[in-house]
């Protein structure tokens, strides 16, 4: 016999019941609502005179765009981030990217775990949905995953610990280099943690106007940033598994193997492509010494995956290099990570499906595991939603800005994939173009799967099947 939930009699109690019911019934819409609310809060914070270095009230478009870019951990900006915002404004930025990078659902679950010392089924389902989008469609899944529903509590602890350990570790590696560069100890401590946070959250904001200029050829500084970006981009489920079974690869899940393999492969191929395409470009890498001519393209390859830092003027890249960067940004990083894009596992699934079709196999297989067909359908949906978003935003922005297609497409994909790299077009856009890019960032960060699930009013169970007929394809 099922018991009805006890409803509170007070007004605040009824509001809380309605809010909890909405969060449990539609976690996708709940995520969008929370992200939108955070954007509103940080827009108000950035609109305060104390948030700007000049003490003036910023334009609404600048405050709004910065809030979206911060919460969506994108890194694009319409102002000079280093000089425009005050120290308090940079504190707001730091807090915002931490919230956005971890993910609102995961952050809420961590707070609930700390307060109650236990994790209820509702919180577990919410956190699991953030880790595995498939559960938004089918609930708890039986197949082996990087993180099972019963392990979500351990995952949340891993998230909190990994964020703390990685960001502090990266900051400690950067701190001595900043001291050697002549920064006072307090300034070096602040900037090292700032860079560390921006690297791990894959945001790319910088605390000073000159940014990475003093360290543009510094192997140590740039390598540490790459490590921070990589750890943030592989995703919390991967970090969780590696922390438990680092020396036992046989116990790594299929998700971990696909994520690491595809990430490393794209990093290497992207770096080699930039080496070849920019070898003779004196405005980017051709004027550097031999070591830097090989190192810098690989740094750029890592940053296009969602890192957002740059040591060159992106607008000076050849058109072919911009196209390669577009592809890398659109793919992005790992699932449930601080990176954006369609995710590396999505790309891996599409290639596995194409390979299986070419060989005449009925199903997809990888690392001695069979991959169910619904994963392919979800991957196709993600790519179609992403491509539609990018195409629509590009068409609108082309009409608004009148800029060339290669620059507009780069800017739009950078916004959608929350990469943060820019050719300089974003800062030159009128307010209407700024709002278009802000919407693109929001759609990219909330996630195409989450957005699609939120737009669906309800899930239907179809109790019948229609007659089958095959259309001609290809």
Summarize the entry for a quick read.
The chain is 64% helix and 1% strand. The protein contains 20 helices and 2 strands.
If you had to describe this structure to a student in words, what would you say it looks like?
The chain has 474 residues and is mostly helical. The protein has one domain (29-139, 146-453). It has helices at 11-25, 27-46, 60-71, 81-84, 87-102, 104-116, 121-131, 135-138, 152-180, 185-200, 219-234, 236-245, 254-277, 290-307, 319-331, 344-359, 373-401, 405-416, 431-446, 448-455; strands at 364-366, 369-371. A two-stranded antiparallel ribbon has the order 1-2. Helix 2 (27-46) crosses helix 20 (448-455) and helix 12 (236-245) packs across helix 13 (254-277). The longest helix has 29 residues, at 152-180. The N and C termini lie far apart (54 Å). The model is unreliable at 139-147 (pLDDT under 50). Keywords: Cell membrane, Ion transport, Membrane, Transmembrane, Transmembrane helix, Transport. This is Trk-type K+ transport system membrane component. InterPro entries: Cat_transpt.
